[in-house]
Amino acid sequence: MKTEVLKTESVRKLFMRYLIPAISGTMVTSIYVLADTIIIGKGIGIDAMAGLNIVLPLFNIFFGIGLLFGVGGSVLMSIARGKGNDEEGNRYFTASLILNAITSIILTIILFLFMNPILYFLGATKVTMPYIEDYAPYIIGGLCFFAFSTFLQTFVRNDGAPKLSMIAVISGGVLNIILDIIFVYPLDMGMRGAAIASVLGSVCTVLILVTHFLSKNNGLKLCFKNISYTTVFNISKNGFSSFVVEIASGIVMFIYNIQILKYIGDIGVSMYGVITNTVIIVNCLCNGVNQATQPIISVNYGAGLNDRVNDVKKIGLKTSFIICSVIAVIGLVIPDLFTYIFLNPNEEILKLSKMAIRIYFLGFFVMGINVFIIGYFQSTIKPFLSLVICILRGCVLSILFVYLLPNILGVSGIWASMPLAEFITFIFVIIFLKKDEYLS
After folding, report:
1. pTM of the predicted model, to two decimals?
2. H or E stretch at 139
3. Is 198 in contact with 37 (CB distance < 8 Å)?
4. Residues 297-324: tens digit of each pLDDT
5. Chain segment 224-245, per-residue pLDDT in tens
6. How far is CA 222 from each of CA 1, 18, 96, 204, 218, rounded to the nearest angstrom?
7. Can you state the angle between helices 162-184 and 143-158, rounded to 10 degrees?
8. How many CA atoms, within 13 angstroms, populate the side-chain half-sphere of residue 199?
9. In degrees rounded to 5, what are phi and psi of residue 57?
């Protein structure tokens, strides 16, 4: 899709054209975690599910790297193209590609060298460690593919090929599910099989995305001219919020696991896996809306078409709110539905999860808005405001409340921490939006 189309065609038509491929892409990306969770929870057992939940923060790091340089570089590329400067756009692409590769390789080496200490730090126990040791090495080995699948999705979509991006991630996700079932059940490969299936699915996604560079419509060219420290800094600064969103999810998951082990035990971590995987789905839906609006917002912002930018913002806010509210209502009315999706629960887990889901899901009513505004501020090169929201909801408030509230409310305080953090963040979002409108 040519840049001019993003500046002239109906905003609503453009949004719908990007929305389905974007949501399909982000949702299928989550399958790398969700398929493992369902197959492991039902096919191997509750202790294995607890072990997987300990490893999940690593996925946040892997995908976070891809978003750091993918979103950071593609937003700047789109804005440069909106100004008519294609060479500058390709310079951002090239620098982002190099940064993504170097960071992925360095992190892979670090994780292999210090794997066991890191896993124990994340909350592994004598019960869960045997399962984790069967799973983690293969996932760490596939780090580069996870990071590049996220990175390439973002740039290919911004280069006007949202359908190819969708096809790539759907193909990888479907392959992952098929291999999960084959490796875990008839081949009886256990956790190792689930991990290998995830890596091979991601490899498939990357290989399909790479075909974009052979297409006649490819606009992504390598440009090493004038790449400087400033280029690297701008990419990292603008993508840092997306990185923080992913990493914060992993950090919060880690802190929750520690608190749950303290107040409930391993069975609580298994149950928390139900919530974390539902949150992954909600986050993917929110990110899908963000990714659908980002190219449109960035190009029009670069071209100075502020009315079109505001129209996209309104559509994105409404869509995010509706999607998240539907899931929140389902959780409040039939909480057991989510538990049965991921586990073969006993009475103890059902009793625990019913209360936890109803409290935790209240935060979804504003979560979609908070996440969308993070993406909006990134797309309009306001990384500081975006980062403040990320740190508030993802680190400061969530961690503060998950430590404080259990002392007052007991176990219920753990589940209430996220909704309270989201609603307080929402107040700041309103303030920042009013300030942004005033300055505009």
Report:
1. 0.72
2. helix 129-141
3. no
4. 988 888 888 889 899 999 999 999 999 9
5. 888 888 888 989 888 887 787 7
6. 20, 25, 11, 23, 12
7. 150
8. 17
9. -55, -25
In one letter, which amino acid is 134? D
Give just the sign of the alpha carbon dihedral 28, 33, 36, 40.
negative
What residue has token string 């990110």?
287
Distance CA 181, CA 177 (A): 6
Residues 358 and 335: their CA atoms lie apart, in Å, by 7
CB atoms within 10 A of CB 419: 20
The residue count for the chain: 440
Which of 211-225, 281-295, 341-355 bottoms out in mean pLDDT, i.e. has the lowest? Answer: 341-355
Q: Any idea what DSSP says for residue 26?
A: H
Is residue 126 within 8 Å of residue 39, measured between CB atoms? no
242-281 burial, b at 16+ Cβ within 10 Å, e below that, comes to bbbbbbbbbbbbbbbbbbbbeebebbbbbbbbbbbbbbbb
Quick one: how far is CA 220 from the chain centroid? 24
Q: Where are the alpha helices (DSSP H) in 83-142?
A: 86-113, 115-122, 129-141
Mean pLDDT of the chain: 86
Nearest one of 203, 271, 280, 262 to 27, comparing CA atoms? 280
How far apart are alpha carbons 193 and 187 in whole angstroms?
8
DSSP-derived 3-state class of residue 218? coil
> What is residue 240's DSSP assignment?
H
Determine the Cα–Cα distance for residues 391 and 388; give it in Å rounded to an integer: 5
